[in-house]
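Reply to dn_fold:

You asked what the input looked like. This is it:
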Amino acid sequence: MTVSGSFDLNSTATELINDALEYCGKRDLLQTTPAEVSATCKRTFNYMMKHWQTRQIGLWLVDDITLFLEYGGTSYDIYSSGDHATTSYVKTEVATAASSGAFTVVVDSISGITNGDYVGIQLDDGTLQWTTVNGVPAAATITLTDALTDDVAVDNHIYTYTTKAQKPLDIIEARLYLSSDTEYPITVEPRDNYKNLATKTSSGKCVQLYQDPRIDRMTVYTWPVADSVQDYIKMSAKRRIDDIDGLTDNASFPQEWLLTLSTNLAYWLAPKFSIGTEKFMMIKSLADETLRDLMAFDQEGTSFTVEPR
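and this is what came back:
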């Protein structure tokens, strides 16, 4: 038996739109889809995918986000220009003490640190100073864009990362990570539980957070507020589905969703093209069946125990 040995099947927005139009009987296989038709189909495609976010689909959309805490900080904005949160970071420690006003710091390892990265340095006053890496690190030395505003002792923490996390759709769970390389769970509380806290500025080890979704950002409130910048929060968060900006873009879905995308796009396009009842019901049946199959498939495997009463 001869098989391809490849597993990279994918389709562009144009191909999925053309498939949907073919289901609707609105495109001949030899026809080029007019630009204005592709434009309205692309809009509907994006609307459909954004609507699907309300169904909590997408095991593949769960990212780990690390949120770096500020001493005494009560809230943090997570978005592309927000506070210091990222999906990938480097942690190292100070190897040689540095004085206030210095533009360099010697660290245990420069592995993974690049020019232009955000860099957070734990100062001796207990705060975290953020600046950027100025130049390619060499010989265990990082050059800083801004001078140190306080002394830095050996073994103080250094955090670096390249890109801030996008606004998440939902925070599923969270953990507080300690300098001892241990972590414990943080509860994600509803609004009322956080608002009813008598003293929101109590300091200690964070045990709960409240997520407040805004249009352009996710604001996270932590309690108690951080008493050490060596602690940081790791959270599993559902990221948003990528937009289709150009017709050559791929949808941010695994390949098993391709049929579901095309049949469901056909369902949402059908009213725009005044499809007859019989054909519409056929498209609806295909769309319902494929989406139902994938919703059942797109579930995390869990175990449960049934005990006698």
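Helices lie at 13-23, 35-52, 191-195, 258-269, 277-297.
Hope that clears it up.
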